[in-house]
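#lab-general

N.A. 3:47 PM
ok so I finally got the sequence cleaned up, no stray characters, all 172 residues accounted for. can someone with queue access submit it? mine expired

B.Y. 3:52 PM
send it over

N.A. 3:53 PM
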Amino acid sequence: MPRSCCVSSPFRSATSRSRPIVYFDGIVVHVRGANGRVSQHTIYVALGVNLEGHKELLGLWLSENEGAKFWLSCLTDLKNRGLDDIFVACIDGLSGFAEALHAAYPETKVQLCIVHLVRAALRDLRDARIEALASAVDTEFAPADQNGADEGSRFLERLCEAAGARDASQSA
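B.Y. 4:20 PM
back already:
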């Protein structure tokens, strides 16, 4: 069982125990131990978007390093606390993470986080080329106008409608 910080589980009391989108990431922090030494630890974060479009902190866990095996224990913890389904999970490119996610939530679609993809692409480039590539990425992923931004909102609405139909069919 992962060492979990005191985080409430808002999905226990919610009418829907599903989340259309959940973001998973690990944050490396420096922690001073009881012996006075500072060491690196990873805080695992699960941030969900509910069917109303509001963000909810689903869980925080602490470990000495980031790995797919520990992520699987975090996902199992979420499942045991009542999170029945995730439609889209946004994750980094950690080896084995997608497999761990599918072990706990087999029907979940995996989306690699664009920020992690861009950082990985920029890591090996020289400074002059980084600026040109970053500009091209901004142009590609920025909505051309308000209609483009509204398209993302409409997608989330359609996803929420589908989730409502899915929840209704599961409770019947």
